Amino acid sequence: MGIILIVVVFAILGYVVSNKLKNKFKKYSQVSLKANLSGKEIAELMLADHNIHNVTVNCVEGQLSDHYNPMNKTVNLSTDVYYGRNAAATAVAAHECGHAVQHANSYAWLKLRSALVPIQNISGKILNVVLIASLFGGIALFGLPYEAVGVVVVGAYSMLTLFSVITLPVEFDASNRALAWVKQRNIVTPEEYGMSKDALKWAAMTYVVAALASMATLAYYMFIFFGNRD
Ligand SMILES: [Zn+2]
């Protein structure tokens, strides 16, 4: 029962935050930037200002699909952001470049996060195996005692939670770098700056909700496996 409640509460919270984010972006996308720069131009300017010349700016499909790829050093902007000349596009383009700057400066939290990617993948696979096994024949996985299954589940889920928590400083720092640069470069009016800041705040909120959901689920698993069962 407990797990269903946690899932439902955070599913609702996640929906509310992502809906708010979409509405903010929609609103700020309609405000044309005084400087009339596109997301692509903003990104290229920010990279050049940080002496980064080996990162390419690409246009990718989808909405809010924007990301920085450290593997091939690309800033990938969605069509709306790439061509957009507004406060929302500015915020996203500069944020993704913030990740490129982190990468170029070997920012510790980003390095740690990248190092954890394989462990996160394995943990996810382990949890899937346990879930499938528990659907067929109960929690006594491969004849393992209940406590041993608990160690596996809690261990794997701890890794997923750690990953979602380490994502937070990486995301907040990228936004801070973006906003600091935008301000110092003087390419937005104070009003546009406020909009960019608000858009990034709501984008960060989605990561906060994900991390909280992960922590709550971990606490639940710890309780059912190792809690007081007298
Ligand atoms: Zn980010």
Automatic annotation (TrEMBL):
Keyword Ribosomal protein included in the entry's annotation: no
Lineage: superkingdom: Bacteria
Organism in which the protein naturally occurs: Cyclobacterium marinum (strain ATCC 25205 / DSM 745 / LMG 13164 / NCIMB 1802) (Flectobacillus marinus)
InterPro entries from the UniProt entry: Zn_peptidase_2 (IPR007395)
Transmembrane segments: 126-144, 151-170, 202-226
Full protein name: Peptidase membrane zinc metallopeptidase
Lineage: Bacteria, Pseudomonadati, Bacteroidota, Cytophagia, Cytophagales
Record carries keyword Cell division: no
Alphabetically ordered keywords of this record: Membrane, Transmembrane, Transmembrane helix
